[in-house]
Amino acid sequence: MKLRWIGLALTALLVAGGCASTPQDSGGGEAAGSSGILKLGTINYIDTLNPFIAIESQSYNAFIMQYPQLVQYGPGLKIEGDWAQSWDNTPDGLKWTFHLEPGAKWSDGEPMTAADAAWTGNTIIKYGDGPTSALVVALNQIKEFTAPDDDTLVIEYKKPIGNVLAQMVQFYVFPQHEWSKHTGNKGKDIKTFQPEKELPTVAGGAYFIDQYEKKGTTVFKPNPEFYGPKSNAEAVALIYYTNSTSMIADLRAGTLDWIESVPTNAVDALESEPGITVESTGSSQVDNITFNSNPVKPQNRELLDFKVREALEYATNRQEIIDVVHNGYAKPWANLISSQSGDFVNPDVKPLPYDPDKANQILDSLGYQMRDGVRWAPATSGEFAQPAHPMSYEMIIPASLNYNGDRYFEIIKDNWSQIGVELKNKPGGDTSQAYALETAGDYTKFDLAAWDWVGYIDPDFMLSVMTKGQWYSWNDTGYNDPSYDRMYEKQAILVDPKERRDLVWEMQAKLGRERPYIHTVQEEIIMAYRDEWSGIEPDLGAYCKCYYTSPQKTQ
Fold it and tell me: How far apart, in whole angstroms, are the C-alpha atoms of residue 515 and residue 509?
């Protein structure tokens, strides 16, 4: 199926010093009332257009723009209706009814009805133990989706849950007439489907994607059938840059309109640039040091010891990371859940102070002796016996980090050398390559990695990534604790807010003690845009269709 461009011509120009193709307005031929093309620069990329295998937050932003959700986060990070006009539920909380915008259509003109939503939900549940595990966590305790008519979706729960709307933010509705072709092989085909090879995408949200380049330019065209507020721009071009220098130069030159993530070392210069506005705000991104926490990992098993990890946290200088890597635009953090989750954040889970003397005392007490500046783990016996060996490890550093991973690594390497722990940089490659190095089919092949998490407001998703059910999906540590899994399942069905919060706090405390991650900092979002654009909401990326639809040209 093919869709025509609606009055838009794009000319791809090679950007000097980078590898991005930059769309340009073609001779001022804007449609009436249009803001032209919004050109958005980024150093992050859309790793795939398939929601069942995507990792990068930029991909999730693309999904929100393309697919209907029942509800979404709006300004102020408050939940509001998207495709659903209203909703109600039975007193026992077991049946939720969503009343949808009538007469909706997919971008190819096919009717978009509640049957699409029911098919999507039931398919995700059907294959939730395998191919659709990445999205099934949002459908916890759902028994069945039904569509009594085109504009009504009914969701029946096995047990009532306390965060239905927050979970529905993560539920994307796919066109049944397109995606049902890819559910063969017991659902496994859904993970191999590549929508980027069948452009334009069939969308029901604010945009469809007409052009996709993983490390180039992806073009979002307004969906003429969209049920909600229309895009103010004639198109949104997301342009990937290999380096921030050329991206900033293009913003200054007017080739770009908006930079989504400004490198912290460029903030001062951009703030003094005429015609450019720089904004910073809190984000949900938490950077971390990831430990292989699989209890059956065969090598370097001393890293499974909670006390060893405690020593390594004492040896990690967060303030140096903040000053050098983030130029002050971050704060010390020790929790899987970001501060955007509000009261769900356990205030007692705090970063340990930088104290290498304390770290050395702990390792001394555990019998890790120093030899020529490097500590040695003593020999062990039993099922997982290993000979004495130096505390020397590789740390995977993905190339897809939105901060300077090599500098981050060098700081940690220097910090840990002061307590006799040696680190070596293992380049991780892009997102999928780095993730493959971590999981390696059985979570036994790596020791350490640097990465980050960008979570939702409700803590459920971030808590789910530590469960055994998310192995080979979101779980990047191999953490496997049945007691934690039981806690996760219990919090999901607590409808009393305080009871749920208390259990969520307990789960955070457990992770804080055991340290499958050393969380280092929570970053700020820093954006810059040209003053002829307004309506940009910095904190709504990957949360709201208005992130792309609201910006408009004022000059």
Answer: 10
SS3 string of 135-149?
A: HHHHHCCEEEEEEEE
* pLDDT tens per residue, range 492-502: 999 999 999 99
List helix spans (H) across 4-158.
57-66, 114-126, 133-136
Residue 242 carries which side chain, given as an amino acid letter? Answer: T
Taking CA atoms, 12 is separated from 19, 23, 211, 432, 492, in Å, by: 11, 5, 11, 27, 48
Are the C-beta atoms of residues 502 and 493 closer than 8 Å to each other? no
State both tokens at 42.
């980024």
Q: Which residues pair with 119 in a beta bridge?
A: none
Q: What's the rounded Cα separation, in Å, for the pair 304 and 181?
A: 44
Cα(479)–Cα(470) distance, integer angstroms: 10
Calpha distance 330→318 (Å, rounded) = 10
Region at 374 (left for phi over 0; alpha for psi -120 to 50; beta for the rest) = beta
Interval 128-158: pLDDT, tens: 999 999 999 999 999 999 999 999 999 999 9
Domains, the chain, ranges and CATH? 13-257+532-553 (3.40.190.10), 283-524 (3.10.105.10)
Task: Give the pLDDT band (50/70/90) at residue 2.
Answer: very low
Q: Tell me the C-alpha distance between 124 and 135, whole Å.
A: 7
In angstroms, rounded to a whole number, what is the distance separating the alpha carbons of residues 543 and 54? 16
**Length of the chain, please?**
555
CA 29 to chain centroid, in Å, comes to 37
Do residues 34 and 28 make contact, with C-beta atoms less than 8 angstroms apart?
no
The residue behind tokens 């007469």 is: 103
**CA–CA gap between residue 326 and residue 403 (Å, rounded):** 8
Comparing CA positions, the residue from 405, 402, 441, 422 lying closest to residue 524 is: 402
Which structure tokens are listed for 24? 């340009």
> Which tens digits make up the pLDDT trace of 229-288?
999 999 999 999 988 899 999 999 999 999 998 988 889 889 999 999 999 888 899 999
Given a contact cutoff of 8 angstroms between Cβ atoms, the answer to whether 30 and 113 are in contact is no
| Token representation of residue 309 | 């990890």
| Helix or strand holding residue 506 (H, E) | helix 497-514
Give the rounded distance of the alpha carbon of 196 from its chain centre. 20
